[in-house]
Specification:
Blueprint: H1 6-68, E1 73-79, E2 84-91, H2 94-99, E3 103-106, H3 112-127, E4 134-138, H4 146-162, E5 167-171, H5 195-201
Parallel strand pairs: 4-5
Antiparallel strand pairs: 1-2, 2-3
Biased composition (Basic and acidic residues): 189-202
Keywords: ATP-binding, Chromosome, Coiled coil, DNA damage, DNA recombination, DNA repair, Nucleotide-binding, Nucleus
InterPro entries: P-loop_NTPase, RecF/RecN/SMC_N
């Protein structure tokens, strides 16, 4: 039978209107949720920008501080929009440091020891903004001479002792005889490999 009665048409219309009203309410709720999430995201981005700014300022200050310990100077230039970090270091010899003069170098033109020391300074500066309970550094002194290595080790140890809430692990293939164990310093030395046994096996 085609068609329907007036009563059936009224009931069907009421159902459709109820469905329409429910859909409008759901849309309003979703729109409100969208605005709330958008506002929350904007607030988080603002806080993240402030947090990044504080880390940047702290890293710049600490990098300059660590370089100055050896009589050098330098600066960090963060280009966040390009995701790039520019490092500039001014190296001073003992005579130049006393006279207050420096020879400017790009980080790419530094010697092996100077570059390694600058990298240590950069790592320590960046670590200041990282709350990690465990910090590990492997073969950091491979390209360092005796002077740079001694200065780097002293700076690393001083920083590690200042950070009492973190554990520092330094791994080096070099001689660690100048490292003195203490209540907060443990030195573990591995046995030298048996070269003779390796050659006989081959």
């Amino acid at each position: 039978r085609l068609g329907c009665s007036i009563e059936e048409a009224e009931l069907d219309a009421k159902d459709k209107l109820q469905t329409y009203d429910d859909a409008k309410k759901a849309i309003r709720m979703m729109e409100g949720l969208r605005k709330f999430l958008g506002s929350s995201l904007d607030q988080r981005m603002d806080r993240w920008s402030e947090f990044r700014m504080f880390i940047t300022l702290a890293a710049k200050a600490h990098f300059t501080y660590y370089l100055h310990k050896r009589g050098d100077s330098g600066y960090l230039k963060f280009q966040h929009d390009k995701e790039k970090l520019v490092v500039r270091v001014s190296v001073s010899t003992a005579d130049q440091f006393q006279k207050g003069s420096t020879r400017h170098k790009d980080s790419k033109s530094l010697s092996g020891g100077e570059k390694s020391y600058s990298q240590i300074s950069l790592l320590l500066a960046m670590w200041q903004g990282i709350a990690s309970p465990l910090v590990c550094l492997d073969e950091f002194d491979v390209y360092m001479d005796a002077v740079n290595r001694k200065q780097s080790m002293r700076m690393l140890m001083e920083t590690a002792l200042e950070q009492s809430d973190a554990q520092y692990i330094f791994i080096t293939p070099q001689d660690a005889s100048n490292m003195k164990p203490g209540p907060f310093v443990k030195v573990h030395r591995l046995n030298d490999p048996n070269r003779r046994q390796t050659n006989e096996t081959e």
